[in-house]
Specification:
The protein is an alpha/beta fold. The protein has 13 helices and 13 strands. The chain is globular and about 55 Å long. The two termini are 27 Å apart. Bound molecules: flavin mononucleotide (FMN) and iron/sulfur cluster. The site of iron/sulfur cluster has 12 residues, from α12.
């Protein structure tokens, strides 16, 4: 591949990402019930880092017990989790990639049977997929969870994360506040739907200083009454003004799950136009994702100035050495788009991949 655009390093604040390929956050359900790192997670992330990926965003990692999206997700809601995450970020760094942490609260897109707590959301409207009615957060609940994000970011940095990602995409709690589809509040968090997120970013920045903060958003939710690029093109600059150093562009919510992890028949780079639209609205690097399945296409995206970093998820699940093999013109084990890794859609307990049985 030689001197190709996707292999150029990128500096963001105090870090240098060795190339433009990102392994984005993946909810594996490989953690312990208490949210600690397991040998399986160390093996998975160690291999992908060794495989040549530049930035690895570990997670998702729940900031509060009532915000866990599933049973065995990573957690960062207490200092007890720092030592365990330290091992995870260390193995990523030792294998050559920049380690990052995706922090999230699931909001209404989980179940109280999984969290052991009532669900909370901007408004008491159930997610059409999970179907459980959440409690509407009051002001003190809002402040508690914003504080949880800030404390979690401080812990992630202490554990060695070199970039913090705040999960504002896919209709989880932050995304739920951003969207008129799920936020029907009449207070200041409803009249200004970005306020919940911008306050979190400001609080997180005071905890992590120069450490770059990425904000993941659904640039289009693909639901009636939800966010489209018209709105998110205005929200993104506000996130940057509040302190975001990177915007990561995804799409969809649980009610439009096919956009969260698009199938191949939706087309290569199905959301690249959204990343380009957001990139045109901000002065910050943008990550794009969704059906980007070759290094040559990643190069086209970077050289075409449609995004600055390219997230390649399932192809690196199927073959953790995707990047190095592509650079060396070796054949990669292909992701077949079988959907097995989307374990939550078919009652499995955790991610698995027939193309990579050792995952
Ligand atoms: C099994 C699975 C779990 C995922 N979990 C998360 C998650 O926790 N946080 C997140 O932001 N995105 C999550 N995603 C979305 C991916 O980060 C990525 O955006 C999506 O798979 C599209 O990229 P791809 O076409 O390269 O797979 C998940 C995707 C898959 C397949
Ligand atoms: S489980 Fe199927 S869809 Fe998921 S990464 Fe593996 S081959 Fe691709």
């Amino acid at each position: 591949m030689g001197d190709t655009p996707a292999l150029k390093p990128l500096e963001i604040n105090n870090i240098t990402i060795p190339n433009r390929i990102v392994f984005p956050a993946v909810q594996t359900n490989f953690a312990t019930r208490e949210g600690f790192v397991t040998e399986r997670l160390l093996r998975m992330y160690g291999k992908i880092a060794h495989g040549g990926c530049g930035l690895i965003i570990a997670g998702c990692i729940a900031v509060s017990d009532d915000g866990a999206p599933s049973t065995n997700v990573l957690r960062i809601n207490s200092d007890k989790h720092i030592a365990s995450l330290k091992e995870l970020f260390a193995i990523i760094r030792e294998n050559g990639a920049v380690p990052a942490a995706q922090l999230m609260h699931a909001g209404r897109q989980t179940l109280s049977a999984m969290t052991g707590h009532s669900l909370v959301a901007p408004s008491a409207i159930p997610c059409p997929v999970m179907k459980e009615t959440p409690l509407e957060l009051d002001n003190s609940g809002i402040k508690r969870i914003q504080g949880d994000f800030a404390k979690a970011a401080g812990r992630a940095k202490k554990a060695g994360a070199e970039l913090i990602e705040l999960h504002g995409a896919f209709g989880y709690l932050i995304g739920g506040f951003l969207s008129p589809y799920s936020n029907k509040r009449t207070d200041e968090y409803g009249t200004d739907k970005a306020l919940f997120f911008t306050e979190i970013i400001e609080k997180v920045k005071t905890k992590v200083g120069e450490t770059p903060v990425s904000c993941r958003i659904s640039a289009d939710e693909f639901v009636d009454g939800g966010l489209t690029l018209d709105e998110t093109g205005k929200i993104a600059p506000r996130l940057v003004k509040a302190g975001a150093d990177v915007i990561s562009v995804g799409a969809g919510t649980y009610a439009s799950m096919n956009h969260m992890a698009p199938t191949m028949d939706m087309g290569e780079g199905v959301h690249v136009h959204l990343a380009k639209g957001i990139r045109d609205s901000v002065d910050a690097p943008v990550i794009c994702a969704g059906n980007i399945r070759s290094m040559s296409y990643a190069n086209d995206i970077i050289s075409g100035k449609k995004a600055d970093l390219v997230a390649i998820c399932r192809p690196q699940v199927a073959d953790p050495f995707f990047v190095k093999k592509s650079i060396n013109n070796e054949s990669v084990v292909q992701c077949t788009d079988c959907g097995t890794c989307l374990f939550f859609l078919h009652g499995a307990s955790a991610v698995s991949c027939p193309q990579n049985p050792e995952l």
